[in-house]
Amino acid sequence: MAYAQFVEGRADEALQTLARAHEGDGDQVALALLKARVLHRLKQLQAALEALAPIQSGARLPEVQGLRALLWLDVGDTTRATEQADLALQADPDQHEAGIVRGTLALWSQRVQESTAAFERVLAKHPESGRAWLGLGQNLMLGGEVAGARALLERASTTMPDHIGTWHALAWCQLLEGDLAGAKRSFDKAFALDRTFGETHGGYALVHALRFERKEAEESIKRASRLDPQGRTARYAQSVLLMDEGRVEEARKVIDDMLARSPGVGALPADFIFRLRELVRPRG
């Protein structure tokens, strides 16, 4: 019953059903895995890790280790994520979540070939893995294949519509194509999932700035900066506003300073934002 509720997207109900299970009722490893997956869906990451903590052996240990790896990745602890993924993949080279972690960590280090191979291996066994489609799409974006990336990211968004990162990646892909309306729709999807996520407000700020809607852009920048002082997208929006005032060197410095603080995947150089401004500038 709990599994059926989980598959149907009724995670809260699934958790309530699992709460009625008692010690000795069925396979405890299976119950722990299902509970952890439900809690992961509910973004209760520490609670999900606690649900898996008692499982230290058994035939399904690689699955437990793989799910632990993905949870640590989403917590932001890449050291523990790597450790658990390596253990899982040593025992089962096709373990789903561990493969996603390996591909994602390679993506974040811009080791595109290694990342692509990891995600493709995941998809060979799990063709509906939204996280793998997301990773492949981001790899194509890094390589400048925007149209192909958009197709993969749209598939990822269909597979896991409740994943904010997917909507953000799709929005950036749409921005790279100059599709401001599409990017706005994707940021709207992210906003519906979490109204307090700073990067979504930064996305709104960038769309407003690119539309020459200065007042709205400034308001969104303030909200984004308050929610996430280190957020990147609000800095891109700020640079567009400076650029439109003719303060090009200041605009470049805003981005260069941001890149110095937070390099890595998703961080695009100043030249990108200059090209984007020209791409969406009205002609006539």
Automatic annotation (TrEMBL):
InterPro entries: TPR-like_helical_dom_sf, TPR_rpt. It holds the Pfam family TPR_16. This is Tetratricopeptide repeat protein. It comes from Dyella flagellata.
